Amino acid sequence: MESCFEAQVTLRCSVEEKAAACLSGSTHLHHLLPIFYLKYWSGVQQRRNSYEDGVYGTTCPIPPGRNFTYILQVKDQIGSFFYFPSLAFHKAAGGFGGIRILSRPLIPVPFADPAGDYTVLIGDWYKANHTTLKATLDRGKKLKFPDGILINGRGPNGVSFNVEQGKTYRLRISNVGLMNSLNFRIQGHKMLLVEVEGTHVMQTHFSSLDVHVGQSYSVLVTADQPAQDYYVVVSTRFSSQILTTTGILRYSNSAGPVSGPPPGGPTIQIDWSLNQARAIRTNLTASGPRPNPQGSYHYGLITPARTIRLSSSAGQVNGKQRYAVNSVSFVPADTPLKLADYFNIGGVFRVNSISDRPTGGGIYLDTAVLGADYRSFIEIVFENGEDIVQSWHLDGYSFFVVGMDGGQWTSASRNQYNLRDAVFRCTTQVYPKSWTAIYVALDNVGMWHLRTEFWARQYLGQQLYLRVYTQSTSLRDEFPIPKNALLCGRAKGQHTRPL
Ligand SMILES: [Cu+2]
């Protein structure tokens, strides 16, 4: 599982009201943008490079008015991702965009070249400024329900996707919102799911698709209906109040505008969503980033060396709303954790400051870092005892989503795991009062962020870092600190490395 490209990405961010906000933050860019690429490698060892991840624990904030160049290398993912500003509550201001990782010319993808390729960023949206929302959270209040849903930054019917009759198009749909699972559908058209966060999947038709916060999907849509305009519909899932918005699928020879009400979708049905999730499986005969079939890595034959159980919860600490994992509500230290590791700065964090199983105790604040062995193969069980849908993301890796079900996870739950063709992705949902289990091969040294994508919860502590560590200083195991790494906190005054 190795990498292919190095790329340089230029993002210019502004701080216009509710427009974008990257200037004073880091931008989370762990997946690569092959837009302006500098150099192409074949068969080069994967660079282990959490320094470039662009989250609090790895990277210092980019000061206002300054530039910072991320040098990124794609992981082994051909597919669809997105980037966003990761600090404070900047994500609520936008500043995100789609990422397309293209296959190398000689590596076939399991479908014909589409006639067009559209990025479709969907998400819930607040009219309030990100600073206002942050202030609410800082006062210890919960975030209210959003005001609406946007498609590519636009309100109702503000965006149209143009198609020619008879042709097939790829839509790369990402949920860039802050809290709501969303259902995506197109009036009168089926969607053929082909790719999930860098994995080609069994090609299955869906009439609508649940996209949980932080998730990305590629579907193929064929313009095979009478030529007119059709609604593209996005609505919230599992919410007592249902928000809906629409865009337009427009045939080039359209005989007329959209007609009739936009098609309805599932609202609170959990089983529907769970069944859909279970139907999303890896295409074992498709090529991955290299010419070998994706199913050639037999994860199901490996016994995990360790089980980590992570239980999420909500509660108050000192009269303020907090969210936790295994009772620990994350608070940042004064120095990015990865830099503290690199410069051997003691006292910034403690390894295993969070338990690897639920403790049942009350919520407390700490800089949660969980230690894990490089090259071990582990099982992580996300346990959700609450009434909300959770969405978990792990940086630095894709993982096999081997199982999810209602109720309490027990070791007997393993009997129902999919050990053959589970989807390999980086963001997974956990249904209300349910669990989701993943397998991860820890082949990537670094300080990796593990967080809920429910952004207010993330901001108020529902996150931790997985420290995949090795004593080795070999370049084979980890890339050295970037020459241009910003140094802040107690790393200020240190030196990165000579030119
Ligand atoms: Cu990530």
TrEMBL record:
Q: Give residue ranges for domain Plastocyanin-like.
A: 41-104, 117-254, 334-471
Domain of life from the UniProt record: Eukaryota
Query: A Gene Ontology molecular-function term?
Result: oxidoreductase activity
Supply the alphabetized keyword list. Glycoprotein
Q: Which CDD domains match?
A: CuRO_3_AAO_like_1 (cd13894)
The similarity comment for this entry is:
Belongs to the multicopper oxidase family.
List the protein's name.
L-ascorbate oxidase homolog isoform X2
